[in-house]
Amino acid sequence: MTASREECVENRTPPIALVVLAMILAAVQVRAQSPFAPGAATRTPTATPSPVPPGEVEIEVVLLSGKKRLTGDDSVAWVPKLTARGRAETHVKIAQKNKQFEPRIAVVSVGSQVDFPNFDRVFHNVFSLSTPQPFDLGLYRKGKSKSVRFDQPGLVQIYCNIHPHMVAYLMIVDSRRHGTADARGRIRLRKIPPGVTTIEGWNVRGGMWSREVRVRPGRRSDITVELDVSSWRQVPHLNKHGKEYPPPDDDDFRY
Questions:
Q1: What does the alpha-carbon distance between residue 156 and residue 169 come to, in Å, rounded to a whole number?
Q2: Cα separation values, 64 from 75, 139, 177, 184, 207, Å
Q3: Rounded Cα–Cα distance for residues 19 and 13 (Å)
Q4: CA-to-CA distance for 238 and 218, rounded, in angstroms?
Q5: For residue 158, which of 149, 167, 150 has the smallest C-alpha distance?
Q6: Neighbours of 247 (CB within 10 A)
Q7: How far is residue 84 CA from its own chain's centroid?
Q8: What is the DSSP string of 19-46?
Q9: Phi-psi map region of 78: left, alpha, beta (phi>0 left; psi -120 to 50 alpha)
């Protein structure tokens, strides 16, 4: 028996309860996605805190010899094991001028290459017998330069095999934060992370030293290092063959 047209329409019409339920579910979904819905603020990403600015340390080295207070201008200092990404500095120069090394005191990071150019009109023979890295560059004339890469930390004492009065000191350190003293014996170390930090240093007459300092964010911390050098005496060094140097001679034309 065929159903009436009214009955078919009635059978295709969804019940009112189902329509209302669908509307409620749609409203709940929209509300959950709204940024103004309760609890939405808890899903906001937390802002990245600003980095703590590094600080600086200024060291004044004072040498004590009896009642005298001398300037420690022949000093270096560094923050141990404070490294940074990137290559170590290269082509640091220790020149030979007027039969002297310039600079006489230097500090570089492990992995640095040091150039030894000759600007004198005489020959030089730069060498070192120091344990970290002995080397012998041989004789070379004005306008020439030779280089050494230093891969081990430690103190390297540098001499000329011809001129015994030529002496330089090169400190190799495992740090990118280092410096040499100025004429007043002051060393400025920059970009040091805040907190209690160990500073290490060395002086030609006073030797090695170590101090702790509290580095303040974005500020400078000052420390004074006093070293007793009253017992220090200059000791003549030997040539590269382990023998004494010959008597001084006029070497302007020969060497």
A1: 6
A2: 14, 40, 27, 15, 13
A3: 10
A4: 48
A5: 167
A6: 5
A7: 6
A8: HHHHHHHHHHHHHHH-TTSTTGGGGSPP
A9: beta
Asked if 209 and 202 touch (Cβ cutoff 8 Å), the reply is yes
Is the pTM higher than 0.90? The answer reads: no
**Residues ≥6 apart with Cβ < 8 Å to 29:** none
Please state, in angstroms and rounded to a whole number, the distance separating the CA atoms of residues 218 and 224: 20
Distance in angstroms (rounded) separating the CA atoms of residues 141 and 124: 7
CB 81 within 8 A of CB 191: no
Percent of the chain past pLDDT 90, that is, above it, reads: 69
**Total residue count of the chain as it appears in this document:** 255
Low-confidence ranges of the chain (pLDDT < 70): 1-50, 84-91, 249-255
- At 95-139, the pLDDT tens digits run 999 999 999 999 999 999 999 999 999 999 999 999 999 999 999
Rounded to a whole number of angstroms, the distance between the first and last alpha carbons of the chain is 130
